[in-house]
């Protein structure tokens, strides 16, 4: 499994033991606000809003918080000044990094993200410097627990409209599909497998192999500190790394 997918897996594992629920609630609320602001407050007609609400519920955000965020994003509250911004740059080892934020103070957020890049061996660049390397795609993650059968998954995934299946990880398989087909593929597979997540992500066209221990540790620290910023919604990177090195770098 490529590095960006491994990083997503690590984040999901960390979220289980993350005690900073208030910070997570704020992140989820901002994401809902931006989605509703850009595409309207009806989840049925706004795929991005629907996925944001699903993520919020998965993180345990109360329904009242979700409803208030939708209202604010739709123009019914006082947080309409929240805007979406993307920062791009290179991390240790030349790894390309994209950071998507939702903020009410772009100067503060830009200053913080720039300082993280500088502190941990990276360099924040201009808009577009690495964005061309990434393309949107849908990913449905399947847990391999129980009587998992890879051939059965591939058959059902392709029948549901998926494009490919990555089963290289021991614990889970990633079903790849068109971003607009995420919900359909998820629904079809959920009848036969345990779906742990379904989202639209950014997939890199190429990856950088990271094998040096010190570079790996510095890269993981950079990604972690960026991801923990209150205004950061998503972090994408184009690295590939041995599983043992990856585990040692985040321990």
A few lines on this structure:
Helices cover 46% and strands 24% of the residues. By secondary structure, it is α+β, with helices and mostly antiparallel strands. It has three domains: 3-76, Integrase, N-terminal zinc-binding domain (Arc Repressor Mutant, subunit A, Orthogonal Bundle); 83-132 and 206-241, 2-Layer Sandwich (Alpha-Beta Plaits), CATH 3.30.70; 134-204, YebC, transcriptional regulation domain (Alpha-Beta Plaits, 2-Layer Sandwich), CATH 3.30.70.980.
Structure description:
The protein is of the alpha+beta class and 251 residues long. It folds into three domains: 74 residues, Arc Repressor Mutant, subunit A, CATH 1.10.10.200; 86 residues, YebC, transcriptional regulation domain (Alpha-Beta Plaits), CATH 3.30.70.980; 71 residues, 2-Layer Sandwich (Alpha-Beta Plaits), CATH 3.30.70. It is 46% helix and 24% strand. It has nine helices and ten strands. A four-stranded antiparallel β-sheet has the order 3-1-2-9. It starts with a helix and ends with a helix. The mean pLDDT is 87.
């Amino acid at each position: 499994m490529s590095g960006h997918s491994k990083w997503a897996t690590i984040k999901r594992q960390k979220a289980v033991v993350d005690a900073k629920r208030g910070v997570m609630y704020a992140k989820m609320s901002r994401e809902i606000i931006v989605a509703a602001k850009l595409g309207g407050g009806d989840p049925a007609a706004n795929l991005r809003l629907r996925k944001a609400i699903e993520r919020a519920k998965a993180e345990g955000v109360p329904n009242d918080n979700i409803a208030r965020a939708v209202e604010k994003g739709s123009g019914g509250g006082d947080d309409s000044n929240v805007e979406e911004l993307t920062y791009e740059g290179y991390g240790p080892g030349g790894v390309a990094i994209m950071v998507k934020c939702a903020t009410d103070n772009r100067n503060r957020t830009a200053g913080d993200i720039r300082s993280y890049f500088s502190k941990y061996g990276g360099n924040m660049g201009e808009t577009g410097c690495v964005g061309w390397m990434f393309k949107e795609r849908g990913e449905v993650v399947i847990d391999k627990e129980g009587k998992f059968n890879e051939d059965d998954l591939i058959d059902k995934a392709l029948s549901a409209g998926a494009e490919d299946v990555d089963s290289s990880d021991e614990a889970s398989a990633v079903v790849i599909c068109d971003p607009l087909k995420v919900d359909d593929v998820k629904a079809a597979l959920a009848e036969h497998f345990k779906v742990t997540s379904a989202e639209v992500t950014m997939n890199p066209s190429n990856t950088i192999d990271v094998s040096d221990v010190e570079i790996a540790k510095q890269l993981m620290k950079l990604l972690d500190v960026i991801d923990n910023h209150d205004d950061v919604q998503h972090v994408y990177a184009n690295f590939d790394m041995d599983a043992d090195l990856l585990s040692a770098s985040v321990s």
